[in-house]
Amino acid sequence: MPPVDCRCWLAPPADREHSRMLDRIDPFAFKFQFKNVEYSSGRNKTFLCYLVDQGNTADGLLKGYLEDEHTGCHAEEAFFTHCLPHNDPALKYTITWYVSSSPCSACAEKIAEVLKARKNIKLTIFAARLFEWEEAEIQAGLRILHAAGCKLRVMKPLDFSYTWETFVENEEQPFNLWEDCKENYEYYHEKLAEIIQ
Ligand SMILES: [Zn+2]
Question: Which residue ranges does the record assign to the CMP/dCMP-type deaminase domain (predicted)?
């Protein structure tokens, strides 16, 4: 990955409660929220790290992250509202998200609508965990996203290291993967493949 320009957006004060946009993620929050355990008890937020390549080298990559509370506007929706409010049809947007959990069914539908309406957006979502993947509604949402051209992936150990280096206030500390990270990745990878095949 080439060096990237770091920019952060500040949400209007009214939105800060539900969707904060900060420069870098607190390392403890990252290790807790992105941990790819199967039972994600207590993890009631979504963290969304994003890279946006607008195909214009002068502007570099836009980079940042969002976090939400599940009671407020979800991070996925907040991304399109706050980070990419204007769509320039002349530009091609290549967007990559690293999210702590995959989208709920409502967000999956909203994202799919955006992708259908804005053909100049290519989105890849890397998810640490699959959110409630056993639910039929959730699976349907993932299939709708897949059909809309969204690339869905489960985060590999290397993706966690990359996210740590790129989005976390890591104070130059190396990232130590937790036990079972690879096994959990393989588990979710297999489930996702079964769902969207
Ligand atoms: Zn959602």
Answer: 25-145
